[in-house]
Each structure stands twice: as structure tokens, then as C-alpha cells.
Design a protein that fits this description.
462 residues, D-Amino Acid Oxidase, Chain A, domain 2, eight-stranded mixed β-sheet, oxidoreductase, FAD/NAD-bd_sf
Length: 462
Amino acid sequence: MTSFADSHVHDVVVVGNGSLGLSLGLVLARRGVRVAVLGRPHRPGGASCAAGAMIGAFGDVTTTSLKDKYGRTKLDWAYQAGKLWPEWLAGLPDGSDLLTADGTVVILNTVGLPEVDTQNYKAIRGALVDYSEEFEDVDPEDIDWLDPEPTARPLQAMFLPHEHAVNAPELLARLENAFIAAGGTLIAEHATRVDHRRGQVRGVELESGTVLSAEHVVLAAGVASQSLLDSVPEQAARIPRLVSGYGVAALVDTEDGTCPPTVIRTPSRDFGSALHVLPRGDGQVYLGATTVISPEPRETALITDAWSLLNNGNRQIRRSLGESSLRHVQAGNRPVTLDGMPLLGETELRGLWMMTGTHQDGLTLSPLLAREMTALLLGEQPTIDLDVFNPVRTPIQPLTRGEVVETTVTRILAGGYESNWTVPVEWPMLLEATLVTELYRDPPNVPSEVGARLNSHGRRLG
């Protein structure tokens, strides 16, 4: 499946063989560009290979994401990208076979906090109405395959017929095949250094010591892009730093060999994660996912995170999951910038481009961003304004510090309820007051012992 060029000279080198990197490489190769895509075949800690790969714009809408123009821009891009997916899949070998779910059911259940679940459910519905997007309210009792415990029963549900899911590992394999067929070069190594001189990129150095020459280098390796960017420290200092949105998911062989026909998911909860299950065929389901912001990526799952995920799936989705076989637990690292916004476009070092920081939207956005980044690389006019997320920027601050503190505390407490904690009724109010005091006491943007404790607390709560 892997091809190697005799020459080490390319027009563009794309660092990263996930959904974004391969999609960009494919569009460039189809335009006749000499392009190489770099990445280890097993993609250690990558986001794409561990993803449930839900394709849609609206399921992840939150009240917070709609508050500012940046969140609304990302929603609009996801909406446009969703329209591209049928043609995108049709252009891949047997691409139509990649779809694993026929629509999405969003449930609002009795778990969590009204300030999070209920409000985000309403935000999803409001966005659907604003975009005149088709959806249908359904009776929770009529949802096929859903069988939660009574204390986690759904109160409301809606069906989104145009939000699907694909098999992520198979998608990556088909992208690789199409890329090679289009004349692209796939190199099974990661880059260790950006080669540059006098303000101009010259290429990259590989782990083997080989130097590839290229006029343009695109960093599309998710959170792993940061280590390569750090080889150009004067640029790294001017770009919001990437950290990991580490998450855990599981592949489960169901006890009775059945799967839901659709995605079944909650609204987004603590720190952007949503409990969801989707079919993978042959009696196997994908159960996801947790989110913990971590300064460094992880290649393996923590037991506490896996336990929390499996417990929530068993309680909130289907009681018989506890009697099912656990096929595989996997960890992935979503690329998150310190300001929460993508890094898209050329840096101040001529020829060095970034295409990452998309958090959980990268796979959904991949057809759109591949098309638009190709236009920029070829000197053409893009159809969307990528410059709003230009990499070289002061950190975007869509929320005030007070709003950040309020949101953080609410999400932490919501995680407790989702984990089925049992505490005296007055304790959550006391905890809330204590957390608010602690967060306001610490200087902004300075890591602290409090921050470490909160991160640990959030991990335990899932």
C-alpha cells in the first residue's frame, strides 16, 4: 500500500497521515501536484484512527459554541462540509460502503445537569431550525436498541436524518489507496525538523535522517504537529500552543449480536465530550467517548477513563452492554489549541503551513478544508475565509474569564452527576463555591496545583 519516490524533491510535503493530511494530499495529487504525505502507519495516539467518525454539523452544537462569531463560523463550515461528503465518499474506492449509521438520534436523558444537557439540546434544535435542516421529534420509547436503566431514561429525543457516521479505519485505508492511485507518495515516517533558511521553508528532516526538499510544508499531524513546530522556535512562540484532547473509546461485540441502525448520542457534556454509540456491523458497536485536556498526548487509555466510559454506556444506552465482550479499548488525542480554535493557513515562515487544532471537527471538515487549503497552496481564491483562524495570532478570547470559570465549574459538577455520585444535597453548592474561589484566585494562564487537581478531578468523573 505504501509507495516511495526515487526523488526526495516534492512541491508539497504534508506531515500527518490522518483524515486531514490524507484528504489534503489526495486533493493536491488529483490537481497534479508532486505531494508526499508523512506518518507512521499505525498512527500512535492519532485522533482519526480512534474516532467514531460521526459526520455532521449539529450534534455537537452547544450554547457556548453559538455565543461568538468563531463558534458560528465553525458550525457554518461543518454544515458546508456535510454537504460535500456524499460526493467525497463516491470518489473513494467503494466509498459508499464506508457509511455505518443511517442518521443520528440525540437523546436528552435524566443524567447530568439542566444547565448543560437541556440547554445544549435546545441549542441543537435551535441551530437546526436556523439552518432549515430536517429533523424529527421522536418518542424515546420508540428508539430501536436503546435500553437504559430507569434512572437514566431519556425524556426527549430527536432524529437527524442527515448526520451519519463512517468507519474511520476503513476511511483512512481508502484515502491512502486513492492518494497513491492519484500519484501521491506515502512515506511511513514522521518528520523531526523543519528545514528552512532565510525565512523560507526548504523541506523536512525525517526520523531516518533523510531530508525531503519541498517549497511548501503543511503541518497536519494533529497534536503531534507541535513538536515539529517547536523546531522553528521563533514561529512557535507566535502561534497558540497545541495540547491534547485525550479521549477513550471502546469497540464492543454485543451480547445478542445486534447493533442500532443509527448513531445514538447525548448532547455535548463535560469539556466537549458526548456519550455516543454507533454501529460498526457484524454485531459490533463503537462506544465513545471521554475528553480530558492534557499537556501531552497519550497512546494508551487510563483505567479510570475506560471504566467511566463503559459504566456510562451500560447505564445510559443499553443495560446488556455489561454482558457483552470488550473487543478493544483505544485512546486518541484530539488537537486542541490553548484558545480552542483551529490553526489554518501559512505562518510567517514562507512555505510553512498549518492545518490542525480542529479538536473533534477535523474528520467532518476534511473534504472542505482539503479543498480550501489546496486553493491557498496553489495561489487560488478560497471560497471560505480561512484567515479568521490564521496560525500567527494573539489567542482568541471569545469568552470572558468569568464565563470560562462558570462553564468550567458547571462541567465539573455535571461530570459528577453523570458518574452517578451520591452526595448530600448541599454539597454540590459548597463545591461550586469552592471551585469558583479557587479558579479566580489563580493568576490567568499560569498552571497551578489547583489546575492539576481540577484536571485529575475531571478525569475521574469522565
